[in-house]
Amino acid sequence: MVVVGVPGVGKTTVVDKIVAALPKAKLVTFGTVMFEEAQARRWAKDRDQMRKMPVEKQKRLQKLAASKIARMKDPVVLVDTHLFIRTSEGLWPGLPFEVVRAMKPTHLVLVEALPEEILKRRAADSTRSRDSLTTDGMVAELELGRSFLSVSATLTGAPMLIVTNREGRAEEVAESIASMLRSVAR
Questions:
Q1: Are the beta carbons of 173 and 117 closer than 8 angstroms?
Q2: Quick one: DSSP state of residue 173?
Q3: Quick one: which of 21, 69, 156, 177 has the fewest CB in 10 Å?
Q4: Could you read off the pLDDT of 39-76 as tens digits, one per residue?
């Protein structure tokens, strides 16, 4: 299952709670796998620096990460990633054809929240170097996220689920996703 959302939506919090609810689930952060590949090649010193690389290098890292994830044999693999990344060349798909083809996800989940909540979360996160956006910019990113999710679902044939992660409700959202996964596994 691939879980996506714009930066600051609370996606990682939701994914962590899904993993806690599903003991056989393995959590994989796509960006971390990409960063490990970048470090092995001495291309980046931190994850945020990868966004500033030429897109061709980023594409290569994406393919390497997708292949590595596809080889994982765990019963449930939850991939935490983004649908698009802001680069110096423009918005770049986080799940291009080569990546979804390699990973073959069984489910796609988009985590959303209210634009104001996302902006507040991003402002409070001092651990990351994120682009600043206006409320209108965040609304545009959320709309774009739905478009990218639709394309990914079309390419993979995987069902897509859109959930809203309101402030203080991550546990509820995670349980609804975990419940869906349990019902599919039966």
A1: no
A2: H
A3: 21
A4: 999 998 888 788 788 888 888 999 999 999 999 999 88
